[in-house]
Amino acid sequence: MATVWTIPIDITSRWLDNAEVQNFLASNDLDNASPDPLVRIAQFADVTKSLQRHIGHTFSSVQGAATALFDGIDGGVPVALKLAALRLILKEVYQTRHAPQPFSKRVAEELGTYVYALVDPRSRSVFYVGTGRGNRVYGYVWEALAENEHRQTLEDSEPDGAEVRAATIARIRQIYDSGLEVEHYVVAHRVPDSGRIADAVQDGLIGALGLMEGSVVANVASGARKHRAIPIDDLVLQYEAEPVPKLPTPCVVLEVPETSRRGVTSEEVYELSRGPWEAGSAVRNTEDIPVIVFADNIVRAAYRANSWSSVARPGDTALWRFTGESDPELETQFVNKRIASAQVGLSKWPTHGWVPHLTHARPGR
User: Fold this and answer.
1) Exposure on the CB side of residue 150, measured as CA atoms within 13 A
2) Is 317 exposed, middle or buried (CB count within 10 Å of its CB: 0-12, 13-18, 19+)?
3) For residues 194 and 71, which has the higher predicted lDDT (pLDDT)?
4) Domain-terminating residue out of 58, 93, 128
5) Beta strands of 84-166 (E only): which ranges?
6) Is residue 99 one of the residues assigned to a domain?
7) pLDDT, tens digit, 9 for 90 and up, residues 103-134
8) The domain containing residue 162 runs over which residues?
9) What is the pTM of this model?
10) Is residue 290 located within the same domain as residue 322?
11) Strand 2-6 relative to strand 58-59: parallel, antiparallel, unpaired?
12) Which of 262, 260, 258 lies closest to 272, judged by CA?
């Protein structure tokens, strides 16, 4: 077990809610603290700004964390406020995360040449974007973790210079030392060897920018589904997963892209899946109709809809939200398996995500 001091991305809200901080702001008799509330508020604001500047940083010692956070603040920081900050960012790392495993030849062939991005989970920032084939997406992580056996599976080498290489490896080691792991995203794959290279590069950049909080790119709005960055684990699952069996009739198939988000909980998947949807009377009047939820062509959840409630909306089209329960039997049959639009009689999935499958003949409503 190791002890580190990491400033998480949600530090501001945690800092504002911290009981020690609130006590510092409200008390007049703390050691080494000014009796003047305006002075204490100013000191609190200085530490808040320092914590925000250091989001994503990890320190291996309390001295290192204290030096980085407090030494540049004019007038110093009271002991009570220092202790509150250091306790808040302290983290015990019980187990180092395992290195990613090479994926199969089949997955490598499906990916072809791809553009990938490495994300630091501490700050949700992209710190490296590269291209490659095979297991190249894992190359720097394997090097940082001295996984030499895995590195022998790489088909090509990174073209980066020594400075970029060293900085990337150092960042990766800091992430793993903090008890977290690098997040790997593919932002474009099956990149052609010739021809539409410029379009493939643009798609990759759009996908990479989509990973960054607050990024606003004009052409993401129209192409977000097509160019969305996908976690490499999801692509591996997609290309290795067995196809779903024959769908029940009737049922509803829902495409909900957000359900593939890294770290999403089962409760969040349910809330994301409920709607609102343009559910017709045939669906709403079918008792306990199965609801199959998927993202990136992989089924994420399966429910039985018990009831539907209308959602207020301007205009003539009524929208509906379902209430239901997960169905263990359906989950066993469908979850983590690959689904294709042809299985419901479509050439491609509709952009609105709502696919009623009421008959064997054609999708209905």
Assistant:
1) 21
2) exposed
3) 71
4) 93
5) 90-93, 114-120, 125-132
6) no
7) 888 888 888 888 888 989 888 888 888 888 89
8) 105-237
9) 0.66
10) yes
11) antiparallel
12) 258
Which has the higher per-residue pLDDT, 67 or 201? 67
Which letter, b or e, does each residue of 49-59 get, where b requires 16 or more Cβ atoms within 10 Å of its Cβ? ebbeebbbbbb
What's the total number of domains in the chain? Answer: 3
pLDDT in tens, 305-319: 999 999 876 666 789
In the structure, what pLDDT confidence band is assigned to residue 49 with cuts at 50, 70 and 90?
Answer: very high
Specify whether 133 is located in the same domain as 228: yes
Mean pLDDT value across residues 225-233: 69
Question: Same domain, yes or no, for 84 and 128?
Answer: no
Whole-angstrom distance, CA of residue 19 vs CA of residue 24: 9
Look at residues 61, 93, 125 and tell me which one is the last residue of a structural domain.
93
Same-domain status, 231 and 248? no
Cα dihedral across residues 320, 228, 180, 133: positive or negative: positive
User: Does residue 180 sit in the same domain as residue 210?
Assistant: yes
Specify the 3-state DSSP secondary structure of 277: strand
